[in-house]
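Project outcomes to date are best conveyed with an example. Our students and postdoctoral researchers have been running inverse folding experiments weekly, and each run begins with a structure described purely in tokens. The record below, which covers 303 residues, was selected by the lab manager from last quarter's runs and is presented without edits.
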């Protein structure tokens, strides 16, 4: 049995809304995992099913929609800013650490696709996460030209915590559709047909809260948003679940493999079939495989 409670907390001047998914009967001070979806997706689009698997395994799952998306507040609607989303994870850590249901010393971060890189970046900058799960993570289409050194991390952390991360017209892509049935004639943020099929299927379901229109902002910060350069400073256990035939350009498997090599702490690499979206189909064999491996990993590291 599991229980679900609506929750909200503040980040960047907006109310982020989501749920606590918990084992029932309720027991205080359980381990927890904080979860946010990838590019434009919302709580109801499969992530909630991962949360339910984790709750049945004895963890509390805090799932929420990013600022400007789904049921969360924030303007402009549909704007995706990776720095702002990383700050959302920090706000979620603050919120989770104060809940009586959660042991603040046993909190993990979970990310999918775009947020798979974000959780690595956050774990490099904040000492509170005790483990990281990143599935089909986005570390970039190519290796960055900067070295992953302590000076970079210091500047990255300062930008994350204190910097001006507002976008400019020159650093904003969109607004445009997230997906299009014909990207050659109707440009979209995500081009592969697999993305179109998944988003239209799951985002088109009643109650998803998803809209097929976004803007992506990469602000002109002193150092670039580059989770791969944060990887050497992540010393907690990390599970990377990777699709060898990932069709998304910015989830380049060779770049991900390089990021994995840079991780300083205990780490585990798991290949999974089905491409970028295979483990996001529920019910399904790939979902069951992914959720089971992740639940076991979290149970072992957050006993």
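After processing, the design step wrote out the following sequence:
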């Amino acid at each position: 049995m599991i229980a679900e409670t609506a929750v909200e907390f503040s980040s960047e001047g907006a109310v982020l809304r989501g749920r606590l998914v918990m084992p029932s009967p309720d027991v205080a001070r359980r381990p927890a995992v904080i979860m946010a979806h990838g590019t434009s997706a919302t709580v109801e689009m499969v992530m909630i099913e991962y949360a339910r698997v984790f709750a049945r395994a004895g963890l509390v799952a805090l799932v929420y929609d990013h600022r400007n998306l789904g049921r969360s507040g924030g303007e402009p609607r549909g704007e995706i800013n990776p720095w702002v989303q990383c700050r959302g994870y920090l706000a979620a850590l603050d919120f989770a650490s104060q809940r009586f249901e959660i042991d603040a010393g046993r909190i993990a971060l979970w990310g999918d696709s775009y947020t798979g890189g974000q959780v690595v970046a956050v774990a490099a900058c904040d000492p509170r996460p005790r483990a990281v799960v990143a599935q089909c993570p986005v570390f970039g289409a190519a290796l960055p030209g900067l070295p992953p050194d302590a000076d970079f991390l210091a500047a990255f952390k300062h930008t994350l915590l204190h910097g001006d991360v507002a976008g400019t017209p020159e650093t904003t892509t969109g607004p445009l559709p997230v997906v299009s049935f014909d990207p050659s004639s109707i440009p979209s943020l995500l081009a592969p047909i697999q993305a179109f099929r998944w988003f239209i299927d799951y985002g088109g379901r009643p109650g998803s809260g998803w809209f097929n229109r976004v803007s992506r902002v990469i602000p002109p910060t002193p150092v670039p948003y580059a989770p791969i350069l944060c990887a050497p400073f992540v010393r907690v256990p990390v599970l990377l679940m990777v699709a060898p035939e990932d069709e998304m350009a910015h989830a380049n498997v060779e770049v991900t493999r390089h990021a994995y090599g840079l991780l300083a702490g205990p780490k585990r690499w798991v290949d999974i079939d089905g491409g970028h979206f295979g483990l996001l189909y529920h019910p399904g064999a790939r979902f069951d495989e992914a959720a089971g491996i992740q639940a076991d990993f979290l149970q072992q590291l957050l006993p």
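The mean pLDDT is 97. The helical segments are 47-56, 82-97, 114-125, 150-162, 193-203, 227-230, 253-262, 285-301. The training component of this project remains on track.
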